[in-house]
Specification:
Blueprint (H helix, E strand, L loop, with lengths): L12 H13 L10 H11 L1 H13 L7 E7 L4 E7 L2 H22 L13 H14 L6 E6 L9 H11 L4 H11 L4 E3 L2 E3 L8 H19 L4 E5 L2 E6 L2 H17 L9 E4 L2 E2 L6 E2 L3 E3 L2 E3 L4 E3 L1 H17 L5 H15 L4 H8 L4 H19 L1
Antiparallel strand pairs: 1-2, 3-7, 3-8, 4-5, 6-7, 9-10, 11-12, 12-13
Helix pairs in contact: 1-2, 1-3, 1-4, 6-7, 10-11, 11-13
Length: 375
């Protein structure tokens, strides 16, 4: 494994300046919420040079601030997620500096078909790869293995994460700063070892992807799995041999246990959607992955996304020209699922009356106001 010494970059004014600007520009004004971080971000952006010198001092003597936690409920999955936040200055800017420094070296090591939280990749790129593989290698997509990691973020071992990062980083300054961020928060302690990284820190998704990359290479290089895709803690593999998929699934679960992680109990291997030669009846099951339902000859959207689209379309029709930014942005985001799937009948029946150009105009105007305020 190639290692790097990035300690000198911690003192680079341009890197600190870029991190401050990127971090502060991401803070948007929200109605019905506390705007303290937004107003602080505006003050920082007006005097960036002053805060660059302040950040240099904080990097040398960084002491993590008290965390704030709140819960959000994902209605369609009936999940309660605990979100952890820290003050914008200096903590979130420190996190941004760490991400900016680690991004180039970690991205190089990531598996080609790991798609979550990596710049230049994402849901739609992963979807295109799945569709392309189904179309070009239908025989290799006969059986599918699905595996989810149970409470992935909450069960990551601090000691394991730090030991892997130590192999990647030669210097001490950046590594010590990263250790302070990792040890800033934990979900539980077991045998004097801390477990858990927070949902809400910008560093967490990078640390999780970095740690799970070794699972990806175990699957590809040791188990020789031909079709293997990972979207953060969701793992899909496919093949012709059902017994081999079961065997590989067990090997992946054993490898996860060596990393002190475990799979959910809903892991499965099933026959993918198909039609026999002399029948029009579809058999097997679709692949539910990335918010889409993949079939052999088409891709559709999940039920909860469709229901949310219908609810939002009703709100838009009732409000007519008084559509706010939140509703417009939410509708456009979900509408992309319609645009990238075989959902013409749904669009024609339920969503044709919505003027998408006007909604884009609402989003564009709000973005222009925000840019003028920041600039």
């Amino acid at each position: 494994m190639k290692s790097y010494n990035l300690d000198k970059l911690l003192e680079n004014d341009e890197i600190i300046r870029t991190a401050i600007i990127n971090c502060c520009r991401s803070k948007k004004r929200k109605k019905d919420h506390k705007n303290s971080k937004y107003y602080l971000a505006q003050r920082i952006l007006k005097n960036v040079d002053h805060y660059v010198s302040l950040m240099k001092e904080h990097i040398k003597k960084y002491k993590p601030s008290k965390v704030d936690t709140f819960e959000i409920v994902e209605k369609h999955e009936k999940k309660v997620r605990k979100i952890t936040t820290v003050p914008l200055f200096p903590d979130q800017i420190i996190h941004q500096i760490i991400v900016d420094l680690l991004k180039p070296i970690l991205t190089k090591s990531f598996y080609a078909h790991s798609y979550a939280s990596i710049p230049g990749r994402g849901t739609h790129k992963a979807k295109k790869y799945v569709e392309k593989t189904i179309r070009k290698n239908p025989k290799d997509f006969k059986y599918i293995s699905k595996l989810d990691i149970r409470k992935c973020y909450q069960n990551i071992s601090h000691n394991l994460l730090k030991s892997k990062l130590r192999k990647k980083l030669r210097g001490n300054k950046l590594f010590d700063l990263i250790c302070k961020v990792i040890d800033h928060y934990y979900d539980r302690v077991d045998k004097n070892e801390k477990y858990g990284i927070p949902i809400g820190f910008s560093t967490s998704q990078w640390f999780c992807n970095f740690l799970l990359t070794q699972l990806d290479y175990f699957a590809k290089q040791t188990l020789k799995i031909k079709i293997y895709i990972r979207y953060m803690d969701d793992i899909v593999s496919a093949g012709r041999n059902k017994k081999l998929l079961h065997k590989n699934q067990k090997e992946l679960m054993l490898f996860l246990s060596s990393m002190k992680l475990e799979a959910k109990k809903n892991y499965q291997v099933f026959r993918f959607n198909y039609r026999s030669r002399n029948s029009t009846v579809e058999k097997g099951r679709f692949l539910d992955f990335l918010g889409f339902k993949f079939y052999k000859n088409r891709t559709t959207i999940r039920k909860h996304i469709f229901i949310n689209l219908i609810k939002q379309s009703k709100q838009i029709l009732l409000r007519k020209s008084n559509v706010n930014f939140k509703i417009a942005a939410g509708y456009i985001s979900r509408f992309s699922y319609i645009k990238h799937t075989n959902s013409f009948k749904i669009f024609n029946k339920y969503l044709k009356s919505i003027n998408i150009k006007k909604l884009k105009g609402v989003v564009r105007n709000e973005s222009r106001k925000f840019t003028e305020t920041c600039g």
